[in-house]
Amino acid sequence: MKKPLCIFVLLFASVQLSFAQTMPDSVKAYVTQALDIMKRESIHKHQVDWDKVYAQTFEKAKNVSTIKEAYPAINYALAELKDGHSRLYEPEIIRSLKESGYAGTTTQKLPMPTGNMIDGKYAFISIPGFAAMQNKEQLAFVDSVQSVIKFLDAQNPKGWIIDLRLNQGGNLEPMYAGLIPLLGEGKLIGWADADNKITYQTYKNGAVTGLFDSLEHSIEKPYTVKSKNLPIAVLIGSSTASSGEMTAIAFVGRKHTKLIGTNTVGLTTGNNPRVLSDGAWLNLTSSRAADRSGRVYGKGLTPDITLQLTKSTITNSYLYISAAIRHIDKPKK
User: Considering the chain, what is the average pLDDT of its residues?
Assistant: First the structure.
């Protein structure tokens, strides 16, 4: 039974040797670096046939002469992880986001939260997807969320409606830091690695700690809402993805809080950026999200209150808001 395995190992070794003779050393080192990171940190590292992935990735890169030409081979390997979330970001994109910021890179204004009172009783906040790398942009988002909360809280709401229906993800920590007045202190969200060990991100004394990114989101003057126990309705839907889903998970387990809407996309996994030798980011899925009770996800969220939506955007908005108001008026645990 061991003979076929020995043959495969010898074949794999000979394939690598052949590539080493034709592939530039810089490209071979680059591909190896990326594959080694995947093998070490992928959430699916125990399920992947690594001999096969290494061999086929090198096969796809065998005729390239530059690191940039090797990107398709790296993307092939990422797809073979089958997590649906890992991604390679080319160095030009990362450099532009760091130097020129979101607006300079995308020619679009940085998305910011909005809020208003509904019927003079219910505080409504829309949290958009947000993907910015400059600290000043991230802190501006945090300040904007808390400013909206402070403005609405001054009007003595009966409860809060957090709209994540169009939040397709991005930077998670600024969303958390901004919503701290409503999330409260303690555990925000946990991350279960490939061995199911959970590490939590927490909030205390104005600082969010245990982050993936380099910025410890300390808030100089964090706002405190008048009442910390008001009911909250979190709106989710088929466009809620990635960090939008994780933001919803952070509210799971909070007293008098319900998720309302439809099932989400299913990217409830954590991506850890790893910088490759040319400055590209290997944004690798290395964990699954866990709520404050310890429940581990990895798939889409199922709402506590499911809505039967129609083809009419106006009707659907009415269904969402009506369900949120009913929950706030008569909250359940």
Answer: 89
